[in-house]
TrEMBL record:
<feature type="domain" description="NAD-dependent epimerase/dehydratase">
    <location>
        <begin position="6"/>
        <end position="238"/>
    </location>
</feature>
<dbReference type="InterPro" id="IPR036291">
    <property type="entry name" value="NAD(P)-bd_dom_sf"/>
</dbReference>
<dbReference type="Pfam" id="PF01370">
    <property type="entry name" value="Epimerase"/>
</dbReference>
<dbReference type="InterPro" id="IPR001509">
    <property type="entry name" value="Epimerase_deHydtase"/>
</dbReference>
<dbReference type="InterPro" id="IPR050177">
    <property type="entry name" value="Lipid_A_modif_metabolic_enz"/>
</dbReference>
<protein>
    <submittedName>
        <fullName>NAD-dependent epimerase/dehydratase</fullName>
    </submittedName>
</protein>
Protein backbone atom coordinates (compact mmCIF):
# COMPACT_ATOMS: atom_id res chain seq x y z
CA UNK A 1 0.00 0.00 0.00
CA UNK A 2 1.32 3.43 -0.98
CA UNK A 3 2.14 5.64 1.98
CA UNK A 4 0.62 9.11 2.13
CA UNK A 5 3.15 11.79 1.15
CA UNK A 6 3.31 14.81 3.48
CA UNK A 7 5.44 17.76 2.38
CA UNK A 8 6.61 20.05 5.18
CA UNK A 9 7.63 23.49 3.92
CA UNK A 10 9.95 25.30 6.30
CA UNK A 11 11.05 21.97 7.76
CA UNK A 12 14.34 23.19 9.23
CA UNK A 13 12.70 25.93 11.28
CA UNK A 14 11.71 25.91 14.91
CA UNK A 15 8.16 24.62 14.42
CA UNK A 16 9.10 22.62 11.34
CA UNK A 17 11.67 20.53 13.21
CA UNK A 18 9.06 19.69 15.86
CA UNK A 19 6.53 18.70 13.18
CA UNK A 20 9.07 16.32 11.63
CA UNK A 21 9.58 14.69 15.02
CA UNK A 22 5.82 14.38 15.54
CA UNK A 23 5.43 12.70 12.15
CA UNK A 24 8.33 10.30 12.67
CA UNK A 25 6.19 7.54 14.21
CA UNK A 26 3.55 7.69 11.48
CA UNK A 27 3.36 5.25 8.54
CA UNK A 28 3.87 8.08 6.04
CA UNK A 29 6.50 9.50 3.73
CA UNK A 30 7.67 12.94 4.83
CA UNK A 31 9.33 15.28 2.35
CA UNK A 32 11.19 17.88 4.41
CA UNK A 33 11.77 21.05 2.40
CA UNK A 34 13.70 24.08 3.58
CA UNK A 35 16.21 26.66 2.41
CA UNK A 36 18.89 24.69 4.25
CA UNK A 37 18.77 20.90 4.69
CA UNK A 38 16.50 19.86 7.54
CA UNK A 39 17.77 17.58 10.29
CA UNK A 40 15.43 14.62 10.61
CA UNK A 41 15.25 11.49 12.72
CA UNK A 42 15.67 8.38 10.61
CA UNK A 43 14.22 6.15 13.33
CA UNK A 44 10.54 5.36 13.63
CA UNK A 45 7.89 4.32 11.13
CA UNK A 46 8.04 7.26 8.73
CA UNK A 47 10.18 7.43 5.60
CA UNK A 48 11.96 10.76 5.13
CA UNK A 49 13.38 12.58 2.19
CA UNK A 50 15.00 16.01 2.41
CA UNK A 51 15.23 18.80 -0.15
CA UNK A 52 17.08 22.09 0.13
CA UNK A 53 15.27 24.74 -1.91
CA UNK A 54 14.56 28.45 -1.97
CA UNK A 55 10.79 28.39 -2.43
CA UNK A 56 10.72 31.93 -3.81
CA UNK A 57 12.61 30.71 -6.90
CA UNK A 58 10.41 29.64 -9.81
CA UNK A 59 10.11 25.88 -10.22
CA UNK A 60 11.34 24.89 -6.78
CA UNK A 61 7.89 24.88 -5.21
CA UNK A 62 6.35 22.69 -7.91
CA UNK A 63 8.98 20.04 -7.35
CA UNK A 64 8.63 20.31 -3.58
CA UNK A 65 4.90 19.53 -3.54
CA UNK A 66 4.64 17.20 -6.54
CA UNK A 67 2.44 14.26 -5.63
CA UNK A 68 1.86 15.41 -2.05
CA UNK A 69 -1.31 14.30 -0.30
CA UNK A 70 -0.82 17.01 2.32
CA UNK A 71 1.32 20.13 2.70
CA UNK A 72 2.23 21.68 6.03
CA UNK A 73 3.07 25.32 5.22
CA UNK A 74 5.37 26.77 7.89
CA UNK A 75 7.44 29.15 5.74
CA UNK A 76 7.57 32.69 7.12
CA UNK A 77 9.62 35.86 7.10
CA UNK A 78 9.40 37.98 10.26
CA UNK A 79 11.14 41.00 8.69
CA UNK A 80 7.75 42.62 8.20
CA UNK A 81 7.05 42.30 11.95
CA UNK A 82 8.79 45.65 12.44
CA UNK A 83 7.74 47.03 9.07
CA UNK A 84 11.37 47.00 7.92
CA UNK A 85 10.91 45.64 4.39
CA UNK A 86 7.30 44.71 3.73
CA UNK A 87 7.84 43.98 0.03
CA UNK A 88 10.57 41.44 0.72
CA UNK A 89 8.64 39.76 3.51
CA UNK A 90 5.45 39.70 1.42
CA UNK A 91 7.24 37.64 -1.23
CA UNK A 92 7.64 34.93 1.42
CA UNK A 93 4.59 35.37 3.62
CA UNK A 94 2.07 35.84 0.80
CA UNK A 95 3.91 34.93 -2.39
CA UNK A 96 4.78 31.39 -1.38
CA UNK A 97 1.13 30.69 -0.54
CA UNK A 98 -0.01 32.13 -3.86
CA UNK A 99 2.56 30.09 -5.76
CA UNK A 100 1.72 26.95 -3.78
CA UNK A 101 -1.96 27.21 -4.63
CA UNK A 102 -1.16 27.90 -8.29
CA UNK A 103 1.01 24.76 -8.36
CA UNK A 104 -1.69 22.62 -6.83
CA UNK A 105 -4.36 24.15 -9.06
CA UNK A 106 -2.45 23.34 -12.25
CA UNK A 107 -1.16 19.91 -11.23
CA UNK A 108 -3.05 16.95 -12.69
CA UNK A 109 -4.48 14.88 -9.88
CA UNK A 110 -6.69 11.93 -9.27
CA UNK A 111 -8.76 11.63 -6.16
CA UNK A 112 -9.37 14.21 -3.48
CA UNK A 113 -7.73 17.64 -3.28
CA UNK A 114 -4.59 17.77 -1.15
CA UNK A 115 -4.69 19.10 2.40
CA UNK A 116 -2.84 22.37 3.10
CA UNK A 117 -2.28 23.18 6.78
CA UNK A 118 -1.00 26.72 7.27
CA UNK A 119 0.58 28.39 10.32
CA UNK A 120 -1.25 31.63 11.03
CA UNK A 121 -1.07 33.83 14.12
CA UNK A 122 -3.60 34.69 16.81
CA UNK A 123 -2.39 38.30 16.50
CA UNK A 124 -4.16 38.52 13.13
CA UNK A 125 -7.32 39.42 15.04
CA UNK A 126 -5.84 42.78 16.06
CA UNK A 127 -7.22 44.76 19.01
CA UNK A 128 -10.21 43.21 20.77
CA UNK A 129 -12.32 44.37 23.67
CA UNK A 130 -12.92 41.01 25.28
CA UNK A 131 -10.79 38.02 26.18
CA UNK A 132 -10.45 35.15 25.57
CA UNK A 133 -10.58 35.14 21.79
CA UNK A 134 -12.05 32.05 20.15
CA UNK A 135 -11.77 32.68 16.40
CA UNK A 136 -15.24 34.16 15.90
CA UNK A 137 -14.03 37.77 16.22
CA UNK A 138 -13.77 40.03 13.17
CA UNK A 139 -10.14 40.34 12.09
CA UNK A 140 -8.46 43.75 12.14
CA UNK A 141 -4.74 42.98 11.69
CA UNK A 142 -2.55 45.93 12.66
CA UNK A 143 1.04 45.07 11.71
CA UNK A 144 2.51 44.37 8.29
CA UNK A 145 3.28 40.82 9.41
CA UNK A 146 -0.29 40.17 10.52
CA UNK A 147 -1.75 41.65 7.35
CA UNK A 148 0.50 39.42 5.30
CA UNK A 149 -0.56 36.37 7.29
CA UNK A 150 -4.17 37.40 6.78
CA UNK A 151 -3.69 37.73 3.03
CA UNK A 152 -2.14 34.28 2.79
CA UNK A 153 -4.90 32.79 4.90
CA UNK A 154 -7.58 34.41 2.74
CA UNK A 155 -5.98 32.96 -0.40
CA UNK A 156 -6.09 29.52 1.21
CA UNK A 157 -9.74 29.89 2.20
CA UNK A 158 -10.67 30.98 -1.33
CA UNK A 159 -8.86 28.00 -2.84
CA UNK A 160 -10.61 25.70 -0.39
CA UNK A 161 -13.98 27.13 -1.37
CA UNK A 162 -13.14 26.48 -5.01
CA UNK A 163 -12.23 22.86 -4.29
CA UNK A 164 -8.56 23.30 -5.20
CA UNK A 165 -7.34 22.19 -1.76
CA UNK A 166 -8.65 21.21 1.62
CA UNK A 167 -7.10 24.14 3.40
CA UNK A 168 -7.03 25.10 7.07
CA UNK A 169 -5.14 27.63 9.16
CA UNK A 170 -3.93 27.04 12.69
CA UNK A 171 -3.43 30.42 14.34
CA UNK A 172 -0.57 30.13 16.81
CA UNK A 173 -0.11 32.04 20.06
CA UNK A 174 3.34 32.73 21.53
CA UNK A 175 5.26 29.53 20.81
CA UNK A 176 8.42 28.56 22.67
CA UNK A 177 10.59 25.52 23.13
CA UNK A 178 14.15 24.28 22.80
CA UNK A 179 17.58 25.34 21.64
CA UNK A 180 16.50 26.51 18.20
CA UNK A 181 13.89 28.93 19.56
CA UNK A 182 14.40 32.54 18.44
CA UNK A 183 11.37 33.93 20.27
CA UNK A 184 11.24 36.38 23.14
CA UNK A 185 11.10 33.77 25.92
CA UNK A 186 14.19 32.02 24.60
CA UNK A 187 15.98 35.34 24.13
CA UNK A 188 15.36 36.26 27.77
CA UNK A 189 16.39 32.79 28.95
CA UNK A 190 19.67 33.16 27.06
CA UNK A 191 20.21 36.51 28.75
CA UNK A 192 19.50 35.04 32.16
CA UNK A 193 21.88 32.13 31.54
CA UNK A 194 24.54 34.68 30.57
CA UNK A 195 23.97 36.62 33.80
CA UNK A 196 22.27 39.57 32.09
CA UNK A 197 19.04 41.22 33.32
CA UNK A 198 15.74 40.24 31.72
CA UNK A 199 13.97 43.29 30.29
CA UNK A 200 10.36 43.99 29.36
CA UNK A 201 8.62 46.97 27.76
CA UNK A 202 5.86 47.22 30.36
CA UNK A 203 5.18 46.58 34.04
CA UNK A 204 4.88 42.81 33.57
CA UNK A 205 1.12 42.54 33.92
CA UNK A 206 0.53 42.00 30.19
CA UNK A 207 -0.60 38.40 29.78
CA UNK A 208 0.17 35.87 27.08
CA UNK A 209 -1.15 32.44 26.18
CA UNK A 210 2.05 30.40 25.85
CA UNK A 211 2.30 27.09 24.00
CA UNK A 212 5.25 24.73 23.80
CA UNK A 213 6.41 23.83 20.30
CA UNK A 214 5.78 20.10 20.89
CA UNK A 215 2.13 20.84 21.56
CA UNK A 216 2.01 22.93 18.38
CA UNK A 217 3.48 20.06 16.37
CA UNK A 218 0.91 17.67 17.84
CA UNK A 219 -1.81 20.11 16.77
CA UNK A 220 -0.63 20.05 13.15
CA UNK A 221 -0.63 16.26 13.14
CA UNK A 222 -4.14 16.27 14.64
CA UNK A 223 -5.23 18.73 11.95
CA UNK A 224 -4.00 16.39 9.21
CA UNK A 225 -5.99 13.57 10.81
CA UNK A 226 -9.19 15.67 10.86
CA UNK A 227 -8.71 17.79 7.75
CA UNK A 228 -12.19 17.21 6.34
CA UNK A 229 -13.82 18.64 9.47
CA UNK A 230 -11.42 21.59 9.63
CA UNK A 231 -11.15 22.64 6.00
CA UNK A 232 -12.02 26.15 4.88
CA UNK A 233 -11.58 27.81 8.29
CA UNK A 234 -9.05 29.17 10.74
CA UNK A 235 -8.67 27.61 14.17
CA UNK A 236 -7.04 29.05 17.27
CA UNK A 237 -4.49 27.22 19.39
CA UNK A 238 -3.65 27.96 23.00
CA UNK A 239 -3.41 26.52 26.48
CA UNK A 240 -6.60 28.30 27.51
CA UNK A 241 -4.79 30.08 30.34
CA UNK A 242 -2.83 33.29 30.03
CA UNK A 243 0.05 34.21 32.33
CA UNK A 244 1.53 37.65 33.13
CA UNK A 245 4.83 38.13 31.30
CA UNK A 246 6.50 39.42 34.46
CA UNK A 247 5.66 36.17 36.24
CA UNK A 248 6.98 34.12 33.32
CA UNK A 249 10.24 36.08 33.19
CA UNK A 250 10.76 35.62 36.93
CA UNK A 251 10.24 31.87 36.50
CA UNK A 252 12.87 31.90 33.74
CA UNK A 253 15.29 33.82 35.97
CA UNK A 254 14.87 31.19 38.68
CA UNK A 255 15.32 28.31 36.25
CA UNK A 256 18.47 29.87 34.81
CA UNK A 257 19.79 30.38 38.33
CA UNK A 258 19.39 26.68 39.00
CA UNK A 259 21.62 25.95 36.00
CA UNK A 260 24.29 28.56 36.62
CA UNK A 261 24.44 28.48 40.42
CA UNK A 262 24.29 32.27 40.45
CA UNK A 263 21.50 34.35 42.01
CA UNK A 264 18.52 34.97 39.71
CA UNK A 265 19.05 37.92 37.38
CA UNK A 266 16.74 40.91 37.89
CA UNK A 267 13.63 41.41 35.75
CA UNK A 268 13.44 45.09 34.83
CA UNK A 269 11.12 47.39 32.88
CA UNK A 270 12.71 49.44 30.09
CA UNK A 271 11.28 52.04 27.68
CA UNK A 272 9.86 50.43 24.54
CA UNK A 273 11.29 51.29 21.10
CA UNK A 274 9.43 53.88 19.09
CA UNK A 275 8.27 51.31 16.53
CA UNK A 276 6.83 48.85 19.06
CA UNK A 277 3.35 47.84 17.84
CA UNK A 278 0.35 48.20 20.12
CA UNK A 279 -0.17 44.44 20.07
CA UNK A 280 2.97 44.08 22.20
CA UNK A 281 1.14 45.77 25.07
CA UNK A 282 -2.19 43.94 24.76
CA UNK A 283 -2.96 40.78 26.68
CA UNK A 284 -3.83 37.59 24.83
CA UNK A 285 -5.90 34.68 26.06
CA UNK A 286 -7.13 31.96 23.71
CA UNK A 287 -10.14 29.69 23.87
CA UNK A 288 -9.13 26.76 21.65
CA UNK A 289 -12.19 24.66 22.50
CA UNK A 290 -13.44 24.66 18.88
CA UNK A 291 -10.26 22.97 17.64
CA UNK A 292 -10.17 20.64 20.64
CA UNK A 293 -13.75 19.53 20.13
CA UNK A 294 -13.06 18.51 16.52
CA UNK A 295 -9.65 16.89 16.96
CA UNK A 296 -9.36 15.84 20.61
CA UNK A 297 -6.04 17.71 20.80
CA UNK A 298 -4.93 18.96 24.20
CA UNK A 299 -1.71 20.70 25.28
CA UNK A 300 0.29 18.08 27.13
CA UNK A 301 2.99 20.16 28.81
CA UNK A 302 2.26 22.31 31.88
CA UNK A 303 3.84 25.75 31.65
CA UNK A 304 6.40 25.20 34.42
CA UNK A 305 7.55 21.92 32.89
CA UNK A 306 7.71 23.46 29.41
CA UNK A 307 9.78 26.42 30.64
CA UNK A 308 12.11 24.02 32.45
CA UNK A 309 12.62 22.03 29.25
CA UNK A 310 13.31 25.21 27.26
CA UNK A 311 15.84 26.55 29.73
CA UNK A 312 17.62 23.19 29.94
CA UNK A 313 17.82 22.93 26.15
CA UNK A 314 19.20 26.47 25.83
CA UNK A 315 21.75 25.83 28.56
CA UNK A 316 22.91 22.67 26.80
CA UNK A 317 23.07 24.34 23.38
CA UNK A 318 25.26 27.11 24.81
CA UNK A 319 27.93 24.68 26.03
Amino acid sequence: MTRPLITVLGASGFVGSAVLSALAERPVTVRAVARRPATVSWTGRADFETRAADLTVAGNLSAAVAGADAVVHLVLDTVGWRDADPLASARVNVGVMRDLLDCLRSSPRRGRPPVVAFAGSVSQVGPVLKMPIDGTEPDRPQTVYDRQKQSAENLLKQASGAGVVRGLSLRLPTVFGGGGDRGVLAAMARRALAGEPISMWHDGTVERDLLHVRDVADAFVAALDHADALTGRHWLLGRGRSTPIGEVFRMIAELASAHTGRPPVPVVSVPPPADAPGTDFAGVSVDASAFRSVTGWRPRLPLDEALTMMTRALAESAR
